Amino acid sequence: MPRKKPVEVESWHDTKDWSSAHRERMTVGQRVADAVASGMGSWQFIIAQTVFVVAWMTLNIVEVATHRWDPYPFILLNLLFSTQAAYAAPIIMMSQNRSAERDRYQASADYRTNVEAKRDIERVQKQLARIENDKLDRILQVVDERSAGPQGA
Question: Where would you tag: which of 2, 36, 62, 131 has the fewest CB atoms within 10 A of its CB?
Answer without folding.
Answer: 2
